[in-house]
Automatic annotation (TrEMBL):
Domain of life, source organism: Bacteria
UniProt keyword annotation of Cell inner membrane present: no
The keyword Membrane is assigned to this record: yes
Species: Microbacterium lacus
Keywords associated with the record: Membrane, Transmembrane, Transmembrane helix
Protein name stated in the entry: DUF998 domain-containing protein
Length: 358
């Protein structure tokens, strides 16, 4: 494999078949949406678009989440045969199942939150407007059909860069949702993990986001291993152990992230802290070992990695001297970890291209 083909293997791909199947999925979901809207209109007529309990928007979000789950499952399964993704067929069945579950969960959750937020925003422009039967059918058709279409295309073109973008979007949206719905407006005076210590929707969202994100990181590691292997085979990266070592560290990081959500601070403080610390340790190992593991990456990447390491050390010092609160420290380190992942994947995607240009 040449450096240019290795770079091409990292690029998102789409096909006429994927586009066509996405349209069929949207059409089927639209029909279901019309029937769902009709049922909602008869069972609960003239609902407001959104209120404190969600109203019509909550029902639309729930329906969209259901079709998103079905659409993402079918799309991700079928995409194994598409250009650039054939390698997934060689994965062990358990690994492919875990990957599918994580991708489906994240797309389902993002769809639910996006549709609910959309209706809440729409309700601000149509205050007090009841949803009559005709508009119930139309809105449900559009919501479910559009959700199925977007989700199907998303999973059909899944690659490492798209996976990292999906991961960050999911973590940010889930965390912001937990912040906006928490029953304690002064949670930030305690620590970041305080968001997950209540027995209510906000805590379920926060902890669920961490668990699902952890699963997605383990899936991300599978894609990462494939990309690194392509670059090693092309002679771009020099360390033969890079694919296995780097992906293993990411898997451990994902497990630790999931455990942070599995063990909230009010359930098991020791396990919660050990999990958070373990995630931070994996991050530091990846930064420090980078020059050896990833020899062949652009020099600019290593300069960026050292900048992230310096920022992490500075954050620890600022927290130790009392300048940072625990909440600020956790948020900064959290942002550094996911920021570095974004930079790493961007550089990984162009490493082969820079060799070809040279």
């Amino acid at each position: 494999m040449t450096a240019s083909s290795a770079a091409d293997s990292l690029a998102p791909t789409t096909t006429l078949r994927a586009e066509s199947e996405a349209v069929y999925a949207a059409a089927a979901a639209g029909v279901l949406g019309a029937l769902y809207g009709l049922i909602v209109a008869f069972v609960a007529p003239d609902l407001p678009l959104a209120d404190t309990d969600g109203a019509f928007g909550l029902l639309a979000a729930a329906g969209a989440a259901v079709v998103a789950a079905g659409s993402s499952t079918a799309g991700y399964w079928r995409s194994r045969n598409r250009p650039g993704q054939e390698w997934r067929k060689a994965l062990p069945s358990w690994k492919f199942t875990v990957n599918t579950v994580s991708v489906v969960i994240v797309h389902t959750a993002l769809t639910f939150l996006a549709v609910l937020a959309g209706f809440r925003l729409l309700a601000l422009g149509f205050i007090g407007l009841p949803v009559i039967t005709f508009w119930a059918i139309v809105l449900m058709t559009v919501s479910l059909g559009l959700s199925a279409y977007v989700v199907y295309l998303s999973v059909s073109r899944m690659n490492t860069q798209r996976m990292s973008t999906l991961l960050m979007a999911f973590v940010v949206i889930g965390t912001l949702t937990a912040m906006l719905t928490t029953p304690d407006p002064e949670w930030w005076k305690v620590h970041f993990s305080q968001l997950g210590s209540f027995q209510d929707l906000s805590s379920y969202v926060f902890n669920g986001t961490l668990i699902a994100a952890g699963l997605l990181v383990t899936t991300f590691a599978v894609y990462l291993a494939n990309d690194l292997r392509a670059l090693v085979d092309a002679g771009v990266l020099q360390n033969e152990r890079a694919p296995r070592t780097v992906s293993t560290l990411f898997v451990v990081m994902g497990i630790m992230l999931a455990f942070v959500g599995v063990f909230p601070v009010n359930v098991n403080l020791l396990m919660h802290n050990l999990s958070a610390s373990g995630m931070a340790v994996m991050f530091l190992v990846l930064l420090i070992a980078g020059p050896k593991l990833l020899r062949g990456m652009p020099r600019t990447y290593f300069l960026s990695a050292w900048a992230f390491l310096a920022a992490t050390i500075a954050s620890v010092i600022l927290f130790a001297v009392g300048y940072f609160t625990l909440t600020a420290f956790e948020i900064v380190v959290f942002a550094l970890i996911f920021g570095w992942i974004a930079v790493f994947i961007r550089f990984l995607g162009v490493t082969g291209q820079s060799e070809r240009a040279a």
